[in-house]
């Protein structure tokens, strides 16, 4: 009998709780600091930006948080998502390794982002908020929040990084179809955007700039709040449905991962898959190597400094202790727009400092080569972001080919590339280059750390 290709859970198996990794860590992460006083921020400091329920989730010491039934009801549109065994990729590589991928491209917008967009919209609507503002890079997060706002009757405004706004017009159309208003960032609609444009009218933008614009808009309107698609604790919390489902699916498969690999930009997709497995590792029930993979053009974990920094370019957010390239850092407009953030999730940065995970950076040509090989073997064209994880999976599988080890490799395929095909066009035409981050540029941006 042939081995199974996919492992499907029933709707009844949908997780009823999100998992908070903080209580299980050897020591707690450093707190966010107020940008003015440099004292730890309290709930009142965050109230202009977030509803009370999300503020409580951001700082909770509880190990598990119940998922509201209204949120689970929307999750059922696509969750539980499938776990696949990549038989054809294994055969093409000639590896004895077993490769699995948890596929989040089955969501309404084609990525993992609705896992947090839906609860964020729900909690805001429940507290009487009528308008959400946000930033987006490639547009996966903006699309997810637009979908979630439509679901719960909120208006949605998205500031999209100019490089991605120009590269990905169909993502803008998707957001507008769900009812969102989309602006290229930097824009002339905010003081922070106008300041950037005055300095550089041709600015390609950054996630840090787009965050500044969205935060500025939300803070000025009592009926508005800001929504973030990655980085913060409550966002990573919501994404743990990925790892919780994957654990159950590995029980069905009768297997246990030896290596877990995820792409990292702000950290939500990686944390969502990794944290439930890290819980099992810390409890001694399994011992996977957990590996974060980032772009060589925006290498926060591998080359950034672990320091307090602003989450945005204008310095409007609290100071976060994280691996950062500096809030002034403007990355090259690489095709993986979702991995172009200057900082890494404080929680993932802390876990990396504790030595519980590994990190490596890979150039985009190797990543797109992996994406093409995956598409031609497994039939799914992966988004540019998870091609980084796929490239690292292929590296590991080829090492197994040399050593003969039958390792079990797991990755999160966090989305498909149906709206990112121009990036593949550039790769296939031979027009893609690897943008390494020069030391001088890094030193310049790090010099501006607060």
TrEMBL record:
Segments forming domain Tryptophan synthase beta chain-like PALP: 77-415
- Kindly list the cofactors needed: pyridoxal 5'-phosphate
Q: For this protein, what reaction is catalysed?
A: (1S,2R)-1-C-(indol-3-yl)glycerol 3-phosphate + L-serine = D-glyceraldehyde 3-phosphate + L-tryptophan + H2O
What Enzyme Commission number does this protein have? Answer: 4.2.1.20
Q: CDD domains annotated for this entry? A: Trp-synth_B
Which keywords describe this protein according to UniProt? Amino-acid biosynthesis, Aromatic amino acid biosynthesis, Lyase, Pyridoxal phosphate, Tryptophan biosynthesis
Spell out the Pfam families in the cross-references.
PALP (PF00291)
Q: Which domain of life is it from?
A: Bacteria
Which residues are reported to carry the modification N6-(pyridoxal phosphate)lysine?
113
Pathway(s) this gene product operates in, as recorded in its UniProt entry = Amino-acid biosynthesis; L-tryptophan biosynthesis; L-tryptophan from chorismate: step 5/5
Q: Top enzyme class of this protein?
A: lyase
Pull one GO CC term from this UniProt entry. cytoplasm
**A molecular function GO annotation:** L-serine hydro-lyase (adding indole, L-tryptophan-forming) activity
Homology family:
Belongs to the TrpB family.
Function, as annotated: The beta subunit is responsible for the synthesis of L-tryptophan from indole and L-serine.
User: Assembly and partners?
Assistant: Tetramer of two alpha and two beta chains.
Tell me the PANTHER family matching this sequence: TRYPTOPHAN SYNTHASE, TRYPTOPHAN SYNTHASE-RELATED
Q: Which HAMAP family match?
A: Trp_synth_beta
- Name of the protein: Tryptophan synthase beta chain
Q: What is the species listed in this Swiss-Prot or TrEMBL entry?
A: Amycolatopsis echigonensis
Q: Where is the organism placed in the taxonomic lineage, from the top? A: Bacteria, Bacillati, Actinomycetota, Actinomycetes, Pseudonocardiales
């Amino acid at each position: 009998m042939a081995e199974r290709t996919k492992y499907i859970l029933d709707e009844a198996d949908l997780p009823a709780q999100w998992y908070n990794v903080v209580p299980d860590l050897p020591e707690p992460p450093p707190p966010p600091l107020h940008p003015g006083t440099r004292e730890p921020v309290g709930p009142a400091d965050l109230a202009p930006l977030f509803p009370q329920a999300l503020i409580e989730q951001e700082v909770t010491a509880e190990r598990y948080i119940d998922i509201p039934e209204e949120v689970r009801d929307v999750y059922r549109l696509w969750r539980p998502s499938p776990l696949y065994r990549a038989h054809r990729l294994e055969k093409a590589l000639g590896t004895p390794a077993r490769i699995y991928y948890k596929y989040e491209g089955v969501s309404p917008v084609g990525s993992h982002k609705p896992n947090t967009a839906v609860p964020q919209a729900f909690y805001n609507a429940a507290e009487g908020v009528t308008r959400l503002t946000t930033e987006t890079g490639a547009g996966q997060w903006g699309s997810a929040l637009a979908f979630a706002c439509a679901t719960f009757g909120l208006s949605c405004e998205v500031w999209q990084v100019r490089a991605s706004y120009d590269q990905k017009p169909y993502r803008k159309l998707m957001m507008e179809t769900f009812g969102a208003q989309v602006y290229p960032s930097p824009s002339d609609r905010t003081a922070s955007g106008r300041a950037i444009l005055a300095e550089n009218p041709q600015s390609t933008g950054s996630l840090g700039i787009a965050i500044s614009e969205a935060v500025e808009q939300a803070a000025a309107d009592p009926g508005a709040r800001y929504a973030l698609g990655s980085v913060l604790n409550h966002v990573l919390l919501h994404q743990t449905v990925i790892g919780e489902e994957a654990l159950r699916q590995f029980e069905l498969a009768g297997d246990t991962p030896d290596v877990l690999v995820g792409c990292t930009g702000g950290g939500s997709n990686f944390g969502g898959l990794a944290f439930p497995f890290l819980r099992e590792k810390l409890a001694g029930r399994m011992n996977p190597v957990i590996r974060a993979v980032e772009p060589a053009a925006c290498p926060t974990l591998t080359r950034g400094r672990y320091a307090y920094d602003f989450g945005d370019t204008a310095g409007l957010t609290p100071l976060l202790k994280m691996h950062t390239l500096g809030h002034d850092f403007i990355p090259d407009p690489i095709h993986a727009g979702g991995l172009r953030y200057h900082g890494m999730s404080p929680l993932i940065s802390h876990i990396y400092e504790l030595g519980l995970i590994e990190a490596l950076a890979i150039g985009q040509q190797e990543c797109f080569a992996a994406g093409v090989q995956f598409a031609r073997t497994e039939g799914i064209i992966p988004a540019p972001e998870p091609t980084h994880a796929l490239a690292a999976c292929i590296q590991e599988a080829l090492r197994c080919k040399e050593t003969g080890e039958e390792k079990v490799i797991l990755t999160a395929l966090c989305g498909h590339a149906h709206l990112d095909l121009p990036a593949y066009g550039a790769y296939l035409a031979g027009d893609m280059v690897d943008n390494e981050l020069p030391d001088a540029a890094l030193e310049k941006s790090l010099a501006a750390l607060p």
